Amino acid sequence: xxxxxxxxxxxxxxxxxxxxxxxxxxxxxxxxxxxxxxxxxxxxxxxxxxxxxxxxxxxxxxxxxxxxxxxxxxxxxxxxxxxxxxxxxxxxxxxxxxx
Length: 99
What we know:
Blueprint: E1 9-17, E2 24-30, H1 34-43, H2 49-59, E3 65-74, H3 76-92
Antiparallel strand pairs: 1-2, 1-3
C-alpha cells in the first residue's frame, strides 16, 4: 500500500553520525525503521556529499551510526518540514551537515 502525502503515520527524524566523534553529518526522515534506513544509506550511498562521506567511512572500515532526533505521527509534508527544521537547527549550531 502506498500512502499519499496527507495520510498520517509514524515518522522518524534522524541523524547519521560519525561513529568516532558522534558528530552529525546528515539529517533525514523516514517511516521505516532506523535500522532499515541506515542499511539503505550504507548499501547505496549515492553520489552526493553524504554519499562521499559514507564511502570515506567505509574505506576506513567504519560505518555511520544513526540517531533518532524526533518521532511523531503526521503526514509526509510534516515530515519534510521537521527534517528541514532540524537541518537548519544543526547548521546554526555549526554542525557539518551535508544536506
